Structure formats: structure tokens, C-alpha cells
């Protein structure tokens, strides 16, 4: 099992969430986060003054899946979250040792 952690533009959340659901991946965790990439934030103008915004709002989506679903989900998120602009985000993939469904005690892929 793997955890896919995608940091995306907040404006892309609904599209990514809907396409995951359509493809059969309903369970996920979403967190509003702040971050920066290689441009180290950006300059923004507000009321005629320039501000350096160090950390930009991003949305983190996490989902844990069986290995055979990994490529499909990563490609789906990548396609859906793309605008072609800087700051489109990143996808991190981690191995998951085990999963337990609290209600039933089921483990691993039965618990996903
Ligand atoms: N190496 C990293 N480690 C942890 N978080 C990261 C890393 N790179 C990016 N992030 C997270 O992803 C968000 C989006 O990153 P971003 O897409 O700007 O990456 P980038 O490398 O600058 O690529 P691009 O040039 O396309 O903007 C960041 O705001 C941060 O939250
Ligand atoms: Mg960037």
C-alpha cells in the first residue's frame, strides 16, 4: 500500500476531488496548508504596494491505496491539477506499512 500526498492549487481541489470520486477513489483527507517551492513564494501587489508573500496557500490531498492503483491515481491527479503555470504543486509517494479500520478491526487492503 502507498500514500499519495498531493500539494495542489486550492482552486483545483474540486476538480481533483470529483475526478478521483468518478474513478472510484472516494476516501481521502484534505488539509489547507501553506508552502513554497523553488520560486520561494512571490511578489504580490495590494493597494499599490508590493509585498513579498513567503508562504502561499496550497491544498494537500492524501489518499492511501493498493499498489496496483498507484499509477492510475498519480496520473489522474497530475492531469487534473495542471494549469501549466508555476506553483501547480507536487506529488509525494510513501510506502504504508499497515491500515486498520477502527470500527471493524479489518486490516490492510480490507480496511482501505
Ligand atoms: N521539496 C519540497 N518539499 C516539501 N514541500 C514541497 C517541496 N516542493 C514543493 N513543495 C510544496 O508544494 C507546493 C507547490 O510547489 P511548486 O509547485 O511551487 O513547486 P516548484 O518546485 O516551485 O515547481 P514550479 O516551478 O512548477 O512552481 C509548495 O508551496 C510546497 O507546499
Ligand atoms: Mg513553484
UniProtKB/TrEMBL annotation:
Pfam families in alphabetical order: P-II
Cellular component GO terms held in the UniProt record: cytosol
Keywords noted in UniProt: Phosphoprotein
PTM annotation (O-UMP-tyrosine): residues: 51
Signal peptide: none
MF annotations from Gene Ontology: ATP binding; enzyme regulator activity
SMART domains recorded: P-II (SM00938)
GO terms classed as biological process: regulation of nitrogen utilization
InterPro entries: N-reg_PII, N-reg_PII-like_a/b, N-reg_PII/ATP_PRibTrfase_C, N-reg_PII_CS
Family the entry assigns: Belongs to the P(II) protein family.
Descriptive protein name: Nitrogen regulatory protein P-II
Lineage summary: Archaea, Methanobacteriati, Methanobacteriota, Stenosarchaea group, Methanomicrobia
Amino acid at each position: 500500500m502507498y500514500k499519495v500526498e498531493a500539494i495542489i492549487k486550492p482552486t483545483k481541489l474540486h476538480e481533483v476531488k470529483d475526478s478521483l470520486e468518478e474513478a472510484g477513489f472516494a476516501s481521502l483527507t484534505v488539509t489547507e496548508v501553506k508552502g513554497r517551492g523553488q520560486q520561494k513564494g512571490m511578489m504580490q501587489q495590494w493597494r499599490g504596494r508590493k509585498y513579498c508573500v513567503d508562504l502561499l496557500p496550497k491544498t494537500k490531498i492524501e489518499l492511501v491505496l493498493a499498489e496496483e492503483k498507484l499509477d492510475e491515481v498519480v496520473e489522474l491527479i497530475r492531469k487534473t491539477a495542471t494549469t501549466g503555470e508555476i506553483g501547480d504543486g507536487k506529488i509525494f509517494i510513501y510506502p504504508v506499512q499497515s491500515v486498520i479500520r477502527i470500527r471493524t478491526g479489518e486490516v490492510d487492503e480490507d480496511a482501505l
